[in-house]
Amino acid sequence: MRIFLDSGDLDEVREAVSWGVVEGVTTNPTLIREAISRRPGADLAGYVEELLRAAGPGRPVSLEVMGTRSADMVREALRLYEGFNPVAGNVVVKVPVNTRGVEDGDLEGVRAIRELSSSGVPVNATLIMTPGQAALAALAGARYVSPFLGRVDDHVRSALGISFSKGDYLNVRSLRIWLESRAASGDRAAADVNSGILGGSELVAAIRRTFDVQGLRAEIIAASIRNPRQAEESLEAGAHVVTAPLGVILGMLRHPKTEEGVRIFAEDARRANYGELFGAK
Ligand code: E4P
Questions:
Q1: φ, ψ for residue 168 (rounded to 5)?
Q2: Is 31 helix (H, G, I), strand (E, B) or coil?
Q3: For the chain, first and last CA: distance in Å?
Q4: Annotated catalytic, 166?
Q5: Average pLDDT, whole number, for the chain?
Q6: Model confidence over 19-70: pLDDT tens digits?
């Protein structure tokens, strides 16, 4: 199990690396746009080099291509890998599993993943929403596949007309019970929402089972994580890596009873002159 930071912010990368438990970084064009907009005038290539140095050798940093045709994605990926990997030896190239929506090419992503992986470029197949996409990306040679848990949760809630805010936790177990009761009363649509995968953590579990049964070797990075429970559930479901924003990783540490316990122990230690154990006078 590993934890990566999902951020393009240099200060956040430095902070997270200093904790000693964050072993990689994932970015995307949106995260880079947000980070660079906080540094007017910054040179993007220089900024990315700083990001790679801040993560440091041995901590992979995923950098995404922008093209939607396989030839463009391969060319960009090679530029990223050959241009930036010498900085700290930690570049992984993120390639969408397919680009339908912008291009009419379902296979553009898979072709690019295949070509890059065959040339030894490590690929993180991104925007994975189904076990089938993950399997095809793994067959094409991706080193990592990134199921987007939060966006799957968004999709399921939108399909069901459930209102939500971006960070809201989706309780898939309760949702399944509710849908089963609707299906039992004859609501056929309720039985097949999102092909039966009702949330991001179920997607991770399905991908992990598929990979284990079929002997596929790509590592699963649970991405698009918006709250600590999603991170915990994806680890339980078999994600090899969870990538999450700084606030979510910090949130994994929090519990009111832990905080209350620390306050009480500190107070009782003071009353017991507990410091004497540590040489205090
Ligand atoms: C990670 O690899 C993704 O870029 C990121 O987690 C997307 O998160 P979002 O769906 O919250 O934007």
A1: -65, 135
A2: helix
A3: 43
A4: no
A5: 96
A6: 999 999 999 999 999 999 999 999 999 999 999 999 999 999 999 999 999 9
Give bridge partners of residue 94 from the DSSP assignment: 64, 124
Within a 10 A sphere around the Cβ of 272, how many other Cβ atoms? Answer: 10
Structural tokens at position 273:
């002159």
CA distances from 162 to 187, 225, 244 (A): 17, 19, 24
As separate numbers, helices (DSSP H) first and strands (DSSP E) second, the chain gives 12, 8
Q: Whose CA is nearest to atom 6 of ligand 1?
A: 224
Instruction: Determine which residue's CA is closest to atom 10 belonging to ligand 1.
Output: 224
Name the helix (H) or strand (E) containing 5: strand 2-6
> Which residue minimizes the CA distance to atom 8 of ligand 1?
224
For the CA of 124, the closest atom of ligand 1 is 2
C-alpha 108 – ligand 1 centre gap (Å): 21
